[in-house]
Amino acid sequence: MMSSAKAGKENFQEPSFLSAPQAGERTPHQRCAMKYIQKKNWTEYRSLPLCVEVDFHRSEPGPRETPFDEAMQEVWDDAFEAIQKAYRIGLRWILFTPGCSTSRPGATTARSQVRKLVRDKSATPYILRAKCEYGRSFYVVAIRENPGGALPVVRCPICGCKSYKKKSQAGHFECTDWQHEFNWLELT
């Protein structure tokens, strides 16, 4: 079982592989101060403490039922809601996995929607841009510390089971009674 939320916050240490850009160091997107990571396996970020992974691989088989513009707005809305919830419950990181873009430069994709959100001023109260990192297929968003945030009790939101095991995805669990899968953001 997991330790209490309070103990998790007191023992929090920033991983050594995450570091804010140094004075004078240029980033590809200097305006938003996110650090571009070129040669790193994004799955290493799954080990960040108090982290949840949000996957945006949502392609539908066959003809698209949701209009493209609506689907892209849903990505932005869902990512913003995840950031707000993570802040509210005291998580410190979100790993967004929108995948690599195969579209032409300037095209709207799930990846571009997450990038747009992280740069948007509406995210400022919830994130620390200087500690955010991104690569070709991922974004790691640092969440501001919320002194009033309290991690919820890990209990299956479907059956109420308190017994669970961690999944390989960050912040994801499976109840041991019925094998329902859930994550931190579904517990709020």
Q: Could you say which overall geometry the principal axes of the C-alpha atoms support?
A: globular
Amount of beta strand: 5-15%
The succession of helices and strands, N to C, reads HEEHEHEEEEE
Order of strands, main sheet, comes to: 1-4-5-3-2
Count of the domains = 2
**How many runs of DSSP E, i.e. beta strands?**
8
Mean pLDDT: 82
- How large is the count of helical segments? 3
C-alpha-based Rg, rounded = 17 Å
Helix amount: 10-25%
In words, what does this structure look like?
By secondary structure, this protein is of the alpha/beta class. It has 2 domains: 27-142, no CATH class; 152-188, no CATH class. The protein contains 3 helices and 8 strands. A hairpin with a 4-residue loop joins strand 4 (133-134) and strand 5. It is globular.
Helices, strands, pairings?
Elements: H1 5-10, E1 35-36, E2 51-55, H2 68-89, E3 93-97, H3 110-119, E4 133-134, E5 139-142, E6 164-166, E7 172-175, E8 181-183
Parallel strand pairs: 1-4, 2-3
Antiparallel strand pairs: 3-5, 4-5, 6-7, 7-8
Helix pairs in contact: 2-3
